[in-house]
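Dear Dr. V.,

Thank you for agreeing to look over these. As mentioned in my earlier message, I'm a first-year student in the group and I'm still getting used to reading structure tokens, so any feedback on how I've presented them would be very welcome. I ran two proteins. I've put each sequence directly above its structure. The first is here:
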Amino acid sequence: MNAQINKAINDIEKTKAKIAELQALLPELEKKKTDLENAEIVRLVRKASVEPNALAGFLDSIKIKPSAPELGTQGLANSARINDGVSAEKAVISTDNGESDFPRNTTH
């Protein structure tokens, strides 16, 4: 066979092997990324010392509701409420002393 054809065949085989290797590696890398993101979220929540019910209420309040698309971003921020009635917009603003407006979990 022609040397150029043999080289092309070898290059194809090497490329296919590399693709298979990378495809096997990709799920592991994606899992690692997800694990790191989850650890960061947990770290941030623990650092904020937010009570679970306050966090759940806040997360529920900022979900985009399909029944109200006409509100837009500003309307959603103004209409979203946390369980205790604090607006979502205010809840994410820190006070001058660096503390969050969330109720603190004092049972560490």
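The second protein is here, in the same arrangement:
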Amino acid sequence: MASGQADLLILDEINNALHLKLVDLEQVLDLLRNKPPRLHLVLTGRDAHPQVIELADALRQMTREEQDRLLVMEQDRLVGLITKSSLLRFVQVKRILEPEE
């Protein structure tokens, strides 16, 4: 992540891990606060901590602007699109492939 080579990092089920105290909240908050500007983070899982929600850029922007999608720009160039439905689909597929025990 620090190398700046990645532009998307998916922290799958990180919210559940935080809720179960398997991961330190301050480390995750530090990651969110200090991520490289080009890096987009996707945090999945239930029971998201309120402090994580406050720092969730995409969700906050989508909710605030009542949008279903966000453009992903890199140096004034459109490189992608993040949608609520694609994030929800990812979570649904993951649940099918890896059901809770």
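From my reading of the second output: The chain has five helices and four strands. The radius of gyration is 14 Å. Does that match how you would interpret it?

Kind regards,
E.
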